[in-house]
Design goal:
Length: about 160
């Protein structure tokens, strides 16, 4: 028969969670609302790779989404510009037939990602090589997924 020590229990409590867990003792509706709030806001759009208006459309949609989520107007506009510049960068270095743009807002952090569906890198994919991305974002990077390569950038802001 094994016993669990307090140290083992405290170690289990510090493990990362796969999803936000609201406080206990709430109604089902309150728990669902708290979980949605902890997960933040997320919106995704798909754009054709052959359309030269794709970066402008992605930037406009991202700025609008951040504005609806309560981000200050000047910051929402800057995040829209970030989405447009990141999409431009992705279209230049990751040719693909379709781009999936996702924006995320959690706490005081905004994330913009552009996935090139089944794209293949033709050039340096680091979004930090794009001057506007460096100016607007706090951090950036690339990831490789089964669906294709992805470039992303994050920025901190103050909620309205």
């Amino acid at each position: 028969m094994s016993t669990t020590t307090a140290l083992e229990l405290s170690g289990r409590a510090t493990r990362p969670q796969l999803y936000p867990v609201p406080a206990q003792g709430l109604t089902s509706a309150a728990r669902a609302s708290a979980r949605r709030e902890a997960e933040g806001h997320r919106r995704t759009w798909a754009y054709p790779g052959y359309d030269e208006d794709t970066p402008a459309q992605a930037g406009f949609a991202a700025g609008l989404a951040y504005g609806i989520w309560g981000v200050r107007p000047e910051e929402a506009e800057a995040l829209g510009q970030l989405a447009g510049h990141l999409t431009t960068h992705a279209m230049r270095v990751l040719p693909a037939s379709r781009y999936v743009v996702t924006v995320l807002c959690t706490g005081d952090t905004a994330t913009v990602s552009v996935l090139a569906r089944h794209g293949r890198p033709t050039d340096l994919t680091d979004p930090g090589t794009h001057a506007a991305v460096c100016r607007l974002a706090d951090s950036w990077g690339t990831r490789e997924f089964a669906a294709g390569p992805c470039v992303f950038a994050t920025a901190r802001f103050t909620a309205a």
